[in-house]
Amino acid sequence: MKIINSITDLRTELFNINSTIGFVPTMGALHNGHLSLIDKSKSENELTICSIFVNKEQFNNSEDFNKYPINTDVDIKLLEKNGCDILFLPTSDEIYSEKPIIKFDFGHLETTMEGAFRPGHFSGVALIVSKLFNIVNPNKAYFGQKDFQQLAIIKQLVKDLSFNIDIVSCPTIREQNGLAMSSRNLRLSKSEQGEAALIYKSLEMTKDLLIKKPISEIKSELKNIFNNSNIDLEYLEIVDSNTLISINEYNIENETTICIAAHLGNVRLIDNINV
Ligand code: AMP
User: Ramachandran region of residue 265, left (φ > 0), alpha (ψ -120 to 50) or beta?
Assistant: First the structure.
């Protein structure tokens, strides 16, 4: 695997390449969720490029940024073992040689959930994804359904800016107890990792209840369950999967997604399931 740190070197490397390129952008501290994206890219492209860059612009909370796990040596070994061809590993100065001015506004797609609770987050995500797309110029880019709202925002970004890139959506990979794999899980103790399984359990519970009870009742029942745990529920939203608009009544005909954000200690976790 080639490890490339500068934008110019990566552009030079890719200049004469005619292969199809699959791209997997990440913030590192890699786990099997990330590796499933690499596998998918390898199965669909001649060349797979992964990037590792912890993008300060998308963090609205400096503690979250400062404590974001960094595991570069292990990440490099994992990528090599999984057959990644190129790792793009830039510094912050390489990507942001000057403080960026541009801001993105995704309208109704970011007035709820992550957009509402993390102001500026999706503007930062759209900025780094646009920059990386312009640098790598892949045929396909791979994103996890774990970050459901991010995926909707990126699909919109690609449409609105006419990027000639297929966005491939990949299923959420989970621990045996159902906890969605996340780099932030590294900040949880073993017992907290056990407790955090409640997040997935409550998504499943909500899914079962949707055909039985009104949404308002389900939400208050679920709030009570979290109140009796160590997990602090930030939101439980049941939304139309396409518009991301919160629904008050379930309609079996419409694709629906149940989304949760919650804090365990000082670690913020998100998860969702599709109904
Ligand atoms: P991150 O490093 O957290 O920015 O994630 C990089 C990519 O991996 C994003 O497209 C995520 O949605 C995806 N990802 C993160 N966790 C998982 C998971 N458990 N299963 C599948 N994809 C994931």
Answer: left
